[in-house]
Records
---
Amino acid sequence: AVIPSEGNLKRELQRRKIPFYIIPFCENHRVMGARNWKEELKKSFQNMQAMVRVICLIRKEGVDIVHSNSTAADVGARAALFTRTPHVYHVRELMEEDFGWEYINKSKMKALLQKSGAVVSISKTVQEACQKKYGVRSIQIYNAVNIKRYYQPHRPFFADNKMKLLFCGGGMENKGAMDAVQAVKILKDKK
């Protein structure tokens, strides 16, 4: 896992003995209409540094899939694109409607969504918005999926029977970070 800062997610990852890296990065949005060139340039520079570190991590760890748990961060998606690693965007929000935010670079966000190997939406509303706003077809998967219903113990992920998943996102509770941690723990315990 890659997380941007210290906090609850770090403590939970430590408790579950799941490897993680703290790589500070910024979100890729602003309050609608509140353009601040100086602040956005600073964010862009910090995210470029973070992207380089994530690229190195992907290569060092031999990551198979990069999963971004929100479109509010694009560092994982950009690093995956650069390294040609499959990427999954998990879209959990409607930026404008839910929060009054807009992407700093909407055309870049659209391109990242379109170039992702898969886009997962948490609801029909989010799924329809992805199609309408970005021309992206997404798969609808609700939060809190029953793991027992979908777990397939007879199906190895890769030839060496290991899956290396890089979770690159924030630790806010509503972003499903703990769901990802739990999924990795279950996969690890079942191997």
Note: Residues 37-61 form the longest helix (25 residues).
---
Amino acid sequence: VTPTPFATPAPGQHQKGAVTFSVDGNFLTASQDLELSAEGTSKIYYSLDGSIPDASSTEYTKAISLRASSQTKAYCVTARALYADGTWSEPVVRTYFLGRNANDRYDCLVVSISTDPDNLWDYETGIFVPGKIMDDYLKTHPYTKVDGSTPANYNALRGMEGERKANLEIYLPDGSVIVDQTCGIRCYGGW
């Protein structure tokens, strides 16, 4: 089954894809060794920073060590399978919260939004940085006072042009997933 954008799984279920994860649960108090598997003959690539894996990413060759400590830490694991015919599976994203009391520390919904860091911080396309748009503007307006209205990546990219693909996961306080889907994120605000 291939996940479709904006598809919401049944309560307690994660998005389906070619890559499966061995660790169940999301709020964990002990260290885990996460194993990945895929259908058919394939190589699996993964990332731990929200980026969509490609052939230059880390190839899965052994269990991924997720370490728990006294502080709760989130591990966002994104994985894809590369098949012998050169096609890729859809990315599958799972966020694990590991640490002492991770399984009973929350009394509200927990939200995890993950995206490729370049979607936020890249000089040309990042939506959280002044970036190329501001640099180009200042080249032609060198004596302009820079403030919140100065054209920049974070305020000039509007609508779909400024939307970046992300993954949204929402958990109940017991760690049960209630939403796991692809979404779009945008930067908006006043100064």
Note: Helices lie at 117-121, 131-140, 153-156.
---
Amino acid sequence: RSTASTGSYNIGVLIENPNAPTCFANANAVLRVEAPPQPPQCVHTNPTVSIIPSSQTGAAGSTLSYIVTVTNNDNSACASSTFTLTSNCPSSWACSFDNNNLTIAPGASGSTTLRITSPQNASGSNSFSVTATYPYGSVSSSGTYVISQPSTCSYSLSISPSSGSYSGSSKRWYISATDFSSAGCPSSITY
């Protein structure tokens, strides 16, 4: 019966001939009733958060885009979960997600774009972080926004000889130009 309790049961079978009492046969067996298999249990595991690229360089005041990917590490017995994204950026910086709520099935990943705008007076290397939170935990990942150095344009010009007299004949001067500029400045000089 489907309602039998778990355990072992002895089963005996006897065959007799009523007209010949000495003619009979028997057999025995053991029936084991086991508990039905349990359905898989949902196991929650903190998600994985990645930021690509992890570091970028841009001019002060510019907007850089980072791809944020969240992977749902729950096992297949769990339902889909919604992960809420928050950012922690330097003071006076502007940070925004294209979508800060990602609903992701177990074992799958979802992505969105984080856009970061630095202020005009920003400098150096600046760290930020992204946190993915769902009802069973949260995980953070960090990235870097490096402010590029402005171009410095510097040139040196010399004339040789620096002085001389002219009495009607031709006179030749030699002009030398040196470029001390950093990247981003004009590569040619007109004089």
Note: The mean pLDDT is 85.
---
Amino acid sequence: RDPTTGHFLPPANGAANGFANNVGNLRFSNANWEGKGPPQNGFETFATPQQGVNAAFQNLGAYVQANPNITVAQAIAKWAPPTENNTELYIRQIAEGTGINPAMPLGEVMKDPAVAAQLLDAITRKEKGGLPQGVNADTFMAATGGAPSPQIAQGGGEATAPPVQLAQYQPPQQTPVPQQAFRPQTMQDVI
């Protein structure tokens, strides 16, 4: 466990800071992820970092499919449940690090590749304590349907161009979302 957050950390094995390329620390499931390998200590493994990021994005999409009204905070509480994590801290750190309002519907975040990439970046940094080797802004943009750098798009591996700059979310004018800081008082405020 991380002594600061209380979050369970997988043992490091050199690949994506633990469990081969599983940047979101996804638990083993019956999901048919592309590049899925054998489970390791109850966690998924993936052949490449990109496939691990793709699975994390697809996992968020599955939350929206199951509950179209799920908020970012509710999705984080599902991703990092309070039985295993300091979920309130996790939500606050993601919100402060991205500027994404945790009360915002996750489906709205998922519609904008740059904002969804920003959320994936923040989740990965939280789960792995930083960006694992082989993971950068282009990896997240490719997973969300955004445009990676030309070298990645042509199958050239790691990007040598500067990473894509991730945009801050700006809510639509017709449906403003309050942007004040979200400070849950209890887990009931989150879920």
Note: Residues 49-66 form the longest helix (18 residues).
